Each structure stands twice: as structure tokens, then as C-alpha cells.
Amino acid sequence: MVPSRLDSPQARPIDLRSDAITTPTDSMWEAMRAADLGWASAGQDTLLVELEETVAKLAGKEKALYVLTGGMANLVALMTHTRRGDQVVLDSRSHILWCEEWGLSYICGLTARSVDGVRGQISPDAVVDAINDSLYRHRPRTSLLCLENPDNTFGEAADVGYVASVSNVAHELGASVHLDGARVLNACAALDVELHDMLAPVDSAMISLNKGLSAPGGAILVGTAEFISEARMNVRRLGGSSFHQCGIHAAAALVAFREMLPQLAEDNRRAAALAEALRHVTGVTVDQGRAPTNMVIVAPDPGLMSARGFVDGLETHGVLGYISGENTVRFVTHRHIGDDDIAHAAEAAAAVAESFAASNAKQPAIGT
């Protein structure tokens, strides 16, 4: 039996619930303390201007806009690409639909047309069918296709060929394309492609500044100069334009883009190592696709243990996982997770599965 980390009061749990729990690096804290701040909403914070110009160049887009959260950045993109009453095509398990749907409908007044993709990827034919429905069957006008890369359910990176194929179809039928790229830099690391190549086919994209990058918060929205100009007005409409000290966040984010990109490849590598180790654990099935990133999805054998039982058992060994579905558990690697943590997490999973197996074996058979 693997020893419990909780036996040591000083031991911190191995937190694999999300990469959103990362904290800034020492060099980020130094940059934040030294930040020379200006009036951001007047365009006079030099660090914020530098950040937006830096990310726009990396993304291969004309302009970029700092937004307080990734959810707000996606919402602003929806507002900017559409008009009230329009239809938006998205994967049925996309983060925008599952976790941000109230913004799509309540704030933007949009109708969601959900499509069942394959591991988060909508086929070009499905895009054609969804948009043509609005053209010929009295459905709302479809003005936008939303993609997610990597998807939030499986953590699988979609390659540039896929992004281009579905974007081209949408463009041919008059719809714009927005990419929810909260972890798009992990996808780029997994596929060994540059960010500007990944984003070339889409009209806009959101890039999270925390998660694997470990900056303290915020997101960047990229697109054409015209799109970003209108997006700035929509941020103001949402009450998000008065974050006057955001140069502090910009200072940390600039450090993140200079120093943290190699870390994302390490996070992906450790996720692959965890997945491989968990494949040897009886009682759990690992679900990883062709291009996994820093997420590992496992399904406990329901005849042995529930997802809740698995997560609760892991916690007794100082390992935190996230229940991501009815019977799935998600683990996400990040800069606070080292190789020893991966080994301990795998050993803890094996110990939990063995404990459930032993407990089930002691149960009397039905009819005895």
C-alpha cells in the first residue's frame, strides 16, 4: 500500500484537478513588483500595450485585446461576431456551451446549435448541415462557428488540417470562426506547430494567460483590427474595461510568454507518463487520443468503484482529481507537478483500486 501523504502535515496534495490552480513564478512576481503602471483604459499602460502587441504577433493576427477572464473573452467574441437572434454552431460538449451557456443565451441573445463531434471535433459535413439548416429550414441565421482546441472533455489537440477544413467550410457559407484556445499553446506543443499556424484559419481566438502559463489571470483575444476595435466596445459594455492596474498582470504575462512555453511540453510529457502508468492499474481505463495534451481522462470500472469513490480514495493519499463526467475522472498536469508526483499519483490509484477490489471480494454473494 502506498503511504498517505496526509501522514505528513507539511505535505501539500498533488493537485491534478486543473492547471487553473497554478501560481506565478518568482520572476513573474519580480516583474509585477517592478511594473511601471499607466492608465490602461486610455491606452497608456506600456506593459499592457507590449503584451497585446506581443501576443498578436505570436498569433499571426493584426491586433490583440487583454480581457479579465477567458469566459469573458469568449463572450466578447460571441457579441462581436454576431447579432442578437443569430445561431452559433458548437460541439455539444464544448466549454462555451456547457460552462458559459448562460452568457451565450442570456447576454448575447444567441441560439446554440449543438453538434455531436468526435472527441470534440465537428466534421466539415456536420458544419455544412448545421449552417444549411439555417439557410433553408427557417432556423436563425448562422453567423459563427465555435471551435475548441484542445477540447475540454478529452484534452485532445486538433491539428491545423482539421481547423482549416472546418473553418473553410464555415467561411464558404458566410459564417465566421472563433476558437476557444484556453490551452491552445498545449495543443501547439503536442503537435509541434507554431501558434500563428494553428490560428491562421480562424477569425478570432481566446488564449488563457493562467493555466499552464501560470500568469495570475486574464486572457487575450486576437483577431483583425476591425474585430478588436469592436471587441473593445463590447468589453466596455460588459463592465470589463476599468481594470486600471492590469499592467501588473501584463508584466507577469510577458514573463510567461518568454519563459513558460517549454514548460507546456513538459506538462504534456508528464501527462503521457501518468497515462501510461495508469494503464497498468486494474479497474481503470485510460482514454487518450492521437494527440493528447496535459489532460488524462480515466474511467473507473463501475463494477468496482464509482468516479466519486475513486476521487475520494485518491484524496486520502494526497492526490486530487476532478470528476469530469458521470463516470470519468480528469487529471491535469502543470508546472507544480513533478515526475515524483506522477509516480505517487499512479501508485495511489493502484492502491485505491486494490482497496475497492478487496472490499468487494469480502461482500457475501447474492443468495448466500
Q: Which homologous superfamily in CATH is the superfamily of the largest domain? A: Type I PLP-dependent aspartate aminotransferase-like (Major domain)
- Count of helical regions: 14
CATH architecture level-2 label of the largest domain: 3-Layer(aba) Sandwich
> CATH topology of the largest domain, anyone?
Aspartate Aminotransferase, domain 2
Number of domains: 2
Distance between the termini: 31 Å
How many beta-strand elements? Answer: 13
Low-confidence stretches: none
By CATH reckoning, the class of the largest domain would read Alpha Beta
Largest β sheet strand count, sense and barrel closure: 7 strands, mixed
**What is the 3D shape?**
globular
Rg is 22 Å
* Helical percentage: 40-55%
The fraction of residues assigned to DSSP E strands is 15-25%
- The averaged pLDDT comes out at 91
Query: What structural class do the secondary elements suggest?
Result: alpha/beta
Strand order of the largest sheet: 2-8-7-6-5-3-4
What's the short story on this structure?
This protein is α/β, with parallel strands linked by helices and 368 residues long. It is built from 14 helices and 13 strands.
Please characterize this protein's 3D structure.
The protein is 44% helix and 17% strand. It has 368 residues and is an alpha/beta fold. The protein folds into 2 domains: 119 residues, Aspartate Aminotransferase, domain 1; 233 residues, Type I PLP-dependent aspartate aminotransferase-like (Major domain) (Aspartate Aminotransferase, domain 2), CATH 3.40.640. The strands form 3 sheets. It has a 7-stranded mixed sheet, sandwiched between helices. A 4-stranded antiparallel sheet has the order 9-10-13-12, covered by helices on one side. A hairpin with a 7-residue loop joins strand 9 and strand 10. It is globular, with a radius of gyration of 22 Å. The two termini are 31 Å apart. The mean pLDDT is 91.
